[in-house]
Amino acid sequence: MRASRFLFATLRETPNDAEVISHQLMLRAGMIRKLASGLYSWLPMGTRVLKKVDAIVREEMNRSGALEVFMPVTQPAALWGESGRYEQYGPELLRFKDRHDNPFVLGPTHEEVITDLARNELKSYKQLPLNFYQIQTKFRDEIRPRFGVMRSREFIMKDAYSFHADQASLQETYDVMYDTYSRIFTRLGLDFRPVQADTGSIGGSASHEFHVLAASGEDDIAFSTESDFAANVEMAEAVLVGERASATQAYTLVDTPNQKTIADVCQFLNSDAKQSVKALLVQGPSDEKGHTPVVALFLRGDHELNDIKAEKHPLIAAPLTFATEEQLQQHGLTAGFCGPQGLVEKGLTVIIDRAASVLSDFVAGANEVDKHATGVNWDRDAKFTEVFDLRNVVEGDPSPDGKGTIQIKRGIEVGHIFQLGTKYSEALGCKVLGEDGKPFTVTMGCYGIGVTRVVAAAIEQNFDDKGIIWPKAIAPFEVAIVPMNAHKSPRTLEAAETLYAELQAQGYDVLLDDRNERPGVKFSDLELMGIPHRIVIGEKGLDAGTFEYKGRRDAEASNLSKDELMAQLTR
Amino acid sequence: MRASRFLFATLRETPNDAEVISHQLMLRAGMIRKLASGLYSWLPMGTRVLKKVDAIVREEMNRSGALEVFMPVTQPAALWGESGRYEQYGPELLRFKDRHDNPFVLGPTHEEVITDLARNELKSYKQLPLNFYQIQTKFRDEIRPRFGVMRSREFIMKDAYSFHADQASLQETYDVMYDTYSRIFTRLGLDFRPVQADTGSIGGSASHEFHVLAASGEDDIAFSTESDFAANVEMAEAVLVGERASATQAYTLVDTPNQKTIADVCQFLNSDAKQSVKALLVQGPSDEKGHTPVVALFLRGDHELNDIKAEKHPLIAAPLTFATEEQLQQHGLTAGFCGPQGLVEKGLTVIIDRAASVLSDFVAGANEVDKHATGVNWDRDAKFTEVFDLRNVVEGDPSPDGKGTIQIKRGIEVGHIFQLGTKYSEALGCKVLGEDGKPFTVTMGCYGIGVTRVVAAAIEQNFDDKGIIWPKAIAPFEVAIVPMNAHKSPRTLEAAETLYAELQAQGYDVLLDDRNERPGVKFSDLELMGIPHRIVIGEKGLDAGTFEYKGRRDAEASNLSKDELMAQLTR
């Protein structure tokens, strides 16, 4: 591509309304422009990147054996009624009526449409497994679209849906998708982690999110220093470490006037939060008579309760709900001074975290206003109902797979694979005939990649103060050639043209910067745009038979022979 | 692709609701399925074809120098207000509101969005010309969607918009697009004609439609038997042929009681319609005082008035409006018996078609009830104001370029290129600085291809009673290999696998039909799906060292050596 025939739309200033770096750089590099809130037009610079991501995703999906389909953006509301989501989905689901007053939605996802297709087309278990994918426009009417294409209203997804005779077949395709996603993000040149994710309310049995690691990520990812283990922080198991030592101290009541928080109490008593427990008083599930029990949870003073883990315990209500003031009073509990002592005897359920369970001689509330106790020991001073994994993992915790310790980094979710089970196939009646001739409900999986989001995530992971640093596979151009003073020196332009033709013939995606601009303007544009390789053709180099080369991450340019140059380009 | 891992969704019966052959065959071959009125999901079979069309269009657009962009499907209504189309566009423009009650439309086209982008990004004439394209989902809320993807509500368009400093630059890009479209449809393997089209109310200066010729087409295309000339029938010039002979007959009044139509009169008088003129009394444009003149048009009796041509005459009102009964009475005109005699003298404007102008000794109305005249001659018996091209061409007319004669065939419009001029750039204020430092309004062109429609049009042009006959470039698979009795004969399956691997390695898109189905079922599926080459591997052939080959258009299969087979595949 000749720069003179391309649309450069670089901006010197950082736009005011762009909060995150990828949004700023995509605007500044002339990749996207806002059309309306949450709606972006992709300029030629951005579209080149988008189409490269698109091509890699398509290639790997085809390689995996998935079959490409293409479903409408507009979907009849009736199908969403069948799945129950027409009511359940919030205002993110854009509902509208056509000219004949028939209700439709703009598809944020395609489970209903593909399941409808499958129930009509699939007849026999012999046709299974099948995995259908598409790369297609989606719409989600976000209340506050932001971060550019990271959280826009219209976006491009690669979504896939698989159909199976049984769980074993689903697991097989799920594993293939896991490998396919790993290959896709590897080919895209991104530092990513597949992490175990919560299956949440959809109720599937297994789920992994694929996160691009970036300081600006919205999610905390826990992963092992020494193995492949990675999980969302809320999903990572906090394993039991060590054993409880015998009691050495006597149980002692101490005055802690107005010291209600762990931090206050520990400072007041000059003790370590790790040597204390804190109480969280929550509700259990109501019984048939409408009576709602109170459950006391105890964690080590420096640990955080993990709601999702707590909600999995059958004696704790989901969603997690704290006990009311009234409930506390009924049980004679004192907020801020609550300890485990005597609670089981009062008929309360007491669930303690694994880390709290191995403490001895610890500090706890004394169940009296302005009093705590030191030298508290389980069994001797306080009974409990059960030990349970209740907390978020923290850095330094052992990895649950026994290898290495936990590190926590931030990630941007760019992919998600999910064992759906029969949620949609049951709701829409998607059945096929089994080997025994009887109809059965098919099992499903779904697999998504946010194609437009990947572009933003790649930037969040790869930038410096000069601009974007593209991984080679998705750079808008791999190489830029800059002839010096091209408008005065036919010699540099001619040499640039020769190299341009040569590199193109070798399959490189090359930009010949033949614009009538100062070199400084060109250089900063090319750095902002993140072109991996820059080659400057000047008079001196031509005399010396060298090329001035600078990789996008290099601090300095260097003069290279042709062979050296060609070697650099393959890096 | 192994057929056992693919979704076959062929139907034996022709679906009831499919009127046209492409719709029937796309359903029967398992290419598409209806989701709702005018909304279709593309199954794997159809998607393969769609993506091949897509790839050829993208390759040729890139080669032309056009820059790919990607704009949202959802567009703010305000932009459509600026162009005036929010009001002008009918209910085909789907209007809706988002969760914040802001008005949007689902884009049927993107002139407004791209012009908005251009007015923000383009600063100087130096950046021009630029041509932006996208391949993207469009929505048009057709009142009665039909013919499958031929006239669906959601469809895929390649749309392009070019920006220019002047008309000469527009013409240059227009010519490049003309050639690009010709290359695209040639590569797609279609018999097509670029035809001059009416620029209609958009008011641009030049326009060509690209039509795929097919008996089921909605448009009549006039083209030369001996040159490249082609135009919509309503656009083709009817050239003047011959000279008027001298009068030989006397002007004679004849009784023609109740004979009002040309057919009736000619039968009654035993004369040829070609030797008569018929009158069409229409309105001229109203003057400042609101007075509306009557204009008399005369055509040869066997010719049809062309409204579009007539409307181009400054003395004829557009849209074409017939004179009222009252107006006829005011001028003493008698419907059914109107001739040109004496009209100019009465102050009427008389415009006669070229073919009518060279008649002599003809039949015309006598301007009296139940009377006609024979032996009528221009000048001697009837004056006229002007000769003008008023009629539709008919087969056998000379081609306007002087080469060959006119033939008329039906076509399906699949592409349209259009010189927009400044319609949108003016309405939206898209200006750049000129060489003189002063802002000027840019000139635009637009260029569309109905990508989904091309697929249907290709079928309308290429089918037989067995199914689709794909041009090789867009066939879902180029070659199908059928091992006979594969489930009993490992030998045929093994040979099929070997050939499958070999052809794939050579870059062929191959289907290995390893389904556990009878050969007859496979053969009819493959014919229905239109696979260009079929190779059957049987025991006998293996013994003889031959392959049974059948091209999709061949009447019979033939046994070929390996070399002969490979030669066939390159056909």
Structure description:
The structure is a homodimer of 571-residue chains. In chain A, strand 17 (362-368) and strand 18 form a beta hairpin. In chain A, strands 3, 7, 8, 9, 10, 11, 12, 20 and 23 form a 9-stranded mixed sheet that branches. In chain A, strands 27-26-28-29-30 form a 5-stranded mixed sheet, sandwiched between helices. A 4-stranded mixed sheet of chain A has the order 14-15-16-19. The first copy, chain A, folds into 3 domains: 15-208 and 412-459, Bira Bifunctional Protein, Domain 2 (BirA Bifunctional Protein, domain 2), CATH 3.30.930; 252-388, Alpha-Beta Complex (YbaK protein), CATH 3.90.960.10; 479-570, Rossmann fold (3-Layer(aba) Sandwich). In chain A, 27% of the residues lie in helices and 27% in strands. The radius of gyration of chain A is 30 Å and the shape is globular. The first copy, chain A, has 571 residues and is α+β, with helices and mostly antiparallel strands. In chain A, helix 2 packs antiparallel against helix 6 (167-187) and helix 2 crosses helix 12. At the A-B interface, strand 1, strand 2, helix 2, strand 3 and strand 4 of A face strand 1, strand 2, helix 2, strand 3 and strand 4 of B.
Domain module count of chain A: 3
Low-confidence stretches of chain A: none
Task: Write the CATH homologous superfamily of the largest domain in chain A.
Answer: Bira Bifunctional Protein, Domain 2
Query: Judging from the principal axes of the Cα atoms, what is the shape of chain A?
Result: globular
Biggest β-sheet strands, sense, barrel of chain A: 9 strands, mixed
* Secondary structure tally, helices of chain A: 16
User: How many beta-strand segments of chain A?
Assistant: 30
Q: Supply the CATH class of the largest domain in chain A.
A: Alpha Beta
Q: On the 0-100 scale, what is the average pLDDT of chain A?
A: 94
Which pair of protein chains has the largest interface, and what are the residue counts? A-B, 59 and 59 residues
Structural class of chain A: alpha+beta
Q: Classify the beta-strand content of chain A into a percent band.
A: 25-35%
CA radius of gyration of chain A is 30 Å
Protein name (chains A, B): Proline--tRNA ligase
GO cellular component, one term (chains A, B): cytosol
Catalytic activity (chains A, B): tRNA(Pro) + L-proline + ATP = L-prolyl-tRNA(Pro) + AMP + diphosphate
Subunit structure (chains A, B): Homodimer.
